[in-house]
Design goal:
three-stranded antiparallel β-sheet; 7 helices; two-stranded antiparallel ribbon; binds zinc ion; about 10% strand; mainly alpha
Amino acid sequence: MKDKIACSGCGLIVHRVDVDEESISVCPRCKTTIESRGMDFSTIIALAFSALILYVPAVSLPLLTAEVGGILEKNSLLTAVGYFFQEGYVLASGVLLFTTVLIPIILILSILTMLIPIHFNRFPYVIKVAYKLFTLFHYWVLFDVYILSMIVASVKLEVTTELLLGSGMTFFLLEFILMFFLLKWFEPYDVWRKIEKSNYRYQ
Ligand SMILES: [Zn+2]
């Protein structure tokens, strides 16, 4: 094992320290985490695949069923995005699309793009792209439940009749819980450490 490592945030060369599960070391210059331990990669891959499977019904099955003028309206996340857009709420439509539809799938796919090649001891350049995407977007993921609850609340104000939660809501909440643990247990720095250890140079 090398006794020095490059910081993934600023490139500063720092001495390695061995960390256990409870401690981390950070870069003295930019405070990026240098060493910390996440869950093993096979567990993370299994979690990410489960999240990917749940993602499909979470965005496409109806989240809410509302009776408007005697007509039952069923709205999934995707149809809600389209509905807001058509009604002229472009910003609301964009925020909904970004936080509840795009961010989760970007994170799931970037984790799988990093970990599956590493699992087979391969280090293609795309790992680096996925690493950047993941670190860029992972702060955003837990916003989706706030956004969704605000939308449910605003719909509730407008609809006087009963509002029923659709089957998509169950999948959405399950996926949210899964994403929470996925992000809690996945330590992106483990990817960087694997690459450093492999002595692999990007081509
Ligand atoms: Zn740094």
